[in-house]
Amino acid sequence: MDVHQELIKFRQEEKRLRKKEVFNKKVTYPEQTNRDGKIYSMTPDSDHQGTKGQEENASESQRENKNDRPRRILIVEDDRVSILYIKELISMMDTPGLNIQVKHVFTGERALDHIREEHCDMVLMDLKLPGIDGLETTREIKRIKPFLPVIAQTAFALSGDEQKALEAGCDDYISKPISEKDLTDIIKRFLAPS
Fold first, then answer.
1. Cβ(101)–Cβ(72) under 8 Å?
2. Residue 155 in this model has a pLDDT that exceeds 60
3. Selecting from 1.10.579.10, 3.40.50.2300, 1.10.1040.10, 3.40.109.10, what CATH number does the domain 3-43+69-191 have?
């Protein structure tokens, strides 16, 4: 399948998802965080345990939660539909034990500001950005925080972007249209607790 056909398939999938009520379900994004700052949790709800052993489980759960900080993913993408699509994929992922928070920016400049000012565990980087492109943004991120995983994402997979992304310092590569399985595998590989 050539790049043009992949892009058409991606756009059709975006339209299909928009038509579904999947975007109408309650998912809290950075503009609507709760008082703990959690966007959405991928950990199971433990409120349905029996009363016997509940205190033991609660104290064990509290110990685990102190060590289980949210994993923060920054999406650097200038296409609003792609941002919604990636956020929706992340919210639907089956990643037990991972509490994932998502933020997004539209430009490389804003990504660099975010990296300097806030903690981030992983970056999903679109390579085709207005202003500073994704490759240059990645080089600068790696200069600032060399161990921060940066995952390139682009619709132009056949044009040699994979090699360019790796040379710029990206840790991995994911092709658009992004599948839930590919994204889940990447997130588990880079963010799952050891």
1. yes
2. yes
3. 3.40.50.2300
